[in-house]
User: Fold these one by one.
Assistant:
Number 1:
Amino acid sequence: MSATLKMPASRVVENAKQTSETVLSDASSAMKTAAENPKQATSDFLHTPFIRGALPFVNGGLAGMTATTVIQPVDMVKVRLQLAGEGIKTGPKPTPFGIFRDIVAAGKVADLYTGLSAGLLRQAVYTTARLGIFDTLMKSLSATAEQKGQKIGFKERAGAGLTAGGLAAMLGNPADLALIRMQSDGLKPAAQRANYTSVIDALTRISKNEGVLRLWAGAYPTVVRAMALNFGQLAFFSEAKSQLKDTSLSPRTQTLAASAVAGFFASFFSLPFDFVKTRLQKQTRAPDGSLPYKGMLDCFAKVTKDEGLLRFYRGFGTYYVRIAPHAMVTLIVADFLGFITK
């Protein structure tokens, strides 16, 4: 029989009373300390091991979702531009302004935000993972380099960016596919449109009608695109900030300049893969069960043959306007959140 069962009932009650009083006293003391010095209480909370590990992921997700909300109309135009003239080398060449005008004329301004729920879900998964993984890898690499009396260089930054991008892209592919389906739905004849009501509706119906694995359609180019984009964005941002650290520019100006450099390289390296990703994720099976493209390499080959090599860089200006500001807003917000939660 345990000592507790042998103890008199009055003693058990007394011990329970003392324990509850101690807990209440500690809670009261913690609340009093927080009331007297809220900054210290917040700092103590932010520096707990769990919160320190989670913050890079939380900050990354919030930064990405903020940027997506700002850039979503440009992304809508970019997708429509990439899907226009599919399989045709010659013919009319749509412009970003023409597509923007057509979308607004066919419906309403809110149509430019079609797929926003999918875009936010994608950022909640993809950017949370990529920035969190990148930051975690960079801290680990920095700590290892310091132990050896060295500094991390561009090679380490590039490796961290490629790794973070690839892993995050695999996690975020279903939301990315839902986004492309929702944005391209308006290009179909009215009778053939799926008319998805939300990202959950899109994911559910695609899984039910085409199979769960279809949610990872285009995953290969998505991963390659993400690796190229993150190589351009995260590696060059980190490198540019390192190079600008000893200049006379203010920290805010350094962040802005570094994010602008990162945005350009991210756009340049990733656009061809983004183009193929869009084509693969948009395609649906014909009545005979066939698909226009068998995979990434087949898409590259067919577009090169039927539409020309330059088609991969069609809409570079629109893509840059979509990627560069998104990268800049994401990196600036993430940098700011990282600063206030130090």
Note: The chain has one domain: 49-340.
Number 2:
Amino acid sequence: MRAVVVHGPGDVRVDERDRPVPGAGEVLLALEWGGICGSDIAYWKKGASGTASLKHPLVLGHEVAGRIAALGAGVTGLGEGQPATVHPAQLVGDGVLPERIAGRTNLYPHVRYFGSAAFDPHTDGGFSEYRVVLADQIRPLPDGVDTEQGALAEPLAVALHAVGRVPDLRGRTVLVNGAGPIGSLVVAAARHRGAATVVAADLTASSLAVARAMGADETRDLSRGDVLPQDVDVVFEASGAPAALGPVLRATARGGTVVQVGNLPGTAAPADLGDLVTREITWIGSYRFVEEIDDALRALRDGLDVRPLITHRFPLERAEEALAVAADPASGSSKVMLRLSGA
């Protein structure tokens, strides 16, 4: 079978690997679609994502969906040919968390994640024609949700987890700063959860066009001199740019809430944070998701349309070109999809 493998910085190849065989409690998934994420780009460009660095070749990809090709011994409740996506996280160890964060498995300290070099040996991702998956990581797709949409259940789950960090968005005004793929999905998730008005801000007109298609009522093009709205109830900071924090805090209403969705750098960076104190703003982090992938599949079933997010599609053999397009701000790309196999 073919797989998209990163061997080091700037070195991604489509390698031939043996087709895997599912063991007890496992499922063989024939992958059809994969979405390129920022971590895939980071491994390709730098050989690292966050604090995880490549020590060996790694199959990329954690936003994937396909059809069940075979069942291992003891697997019940699933059937061959069934369309499915994957919850890409697997806890390592006993899974016990302190009572104060009970159930918040996204905060468990040792997690194997598809397409991650955090452990050695690494955890291969799903940018391949086949992959063996633990049966309890399989999430069947609802009727009416195809595998291309199903591949985006994972990033939609990230967005739904972020909006879920605020107990109730109904009737509230929301600002999403940063309209990349996650930011645009936060726009859609906020509308899905009942926000009355959603404003999206970004430096790129093409990203703002996607945000509008995903449900933004207003957009602000910061590259053209637009300014952020003022006195916003809830702000989702999805750019991850430290320089954005000052304007974002100033846009937040006194006593309002900022949810930090965009990954901030792990090194020192200047940021203007004074308004955090003087405006008594609640600043909340949001990391991956728990079981919101199930919420994402229900939202897709109920009509939340993620297709406007998709701007480019490439076959698996053009994976390096796809990564380059996804990484290039001038390409106008939002979510770049890989066709992994299938008709």
Note: The first helix runs from residue 38 to 46.
Number 3:
Amino acid sequence: MLAIAQQAPVPTRVRGTIESVDGDMLTVKSRSGEAFKLHMASDLRVVGVVKAQLSDIKLGSFIGATTVPGPDGAPKAVEIHIFPEDMRGTGEGSRPYDLKPNSSMTNATVSESSVSTDGHTLLIKYKGGEKRVDISPETPIVTFVPGETSELKAGAKVIAFIKPLPDGSFETSRVSVGRDGVTPPM
């Protein structure tokens, strides 16, 4: 009988804190404590992540909602990010996500918004589907602003989107960096 080796899935993003920057090499300590050395691509895009408010979400806004099933099975938001207009359509759809166990990410357009005694509910629609999302007052809400590579320094909280290179190292072409004490919640 043959044993089949199980390989750990290759990460597509690293969430953590920048430990150092040396030339085009970024070292990020992940939330789990693992250090990732990332080559910064020549076309690196840096995006700032800043705090936003529920009132910033309007009908027609394009948002990303990370949800987990609540006690009643309804999707409960664990974070919301509001995309600027130039990012409309980014990753549109709904799919499993790696932020928390059983989480999903839905990038969609807000089509309805309602308030009740239990909180706030959004109906978001994407090509091929829709999702009702419950938002509590504790749900982190952020938006994106243009960023600079100068923001990538030791101590900055980031999400780096990565891809493996043939030599086993990683490259990043997009980094979202928290500003003003914000840890990117997504």
Note: The chain has no helices and twelve strands.
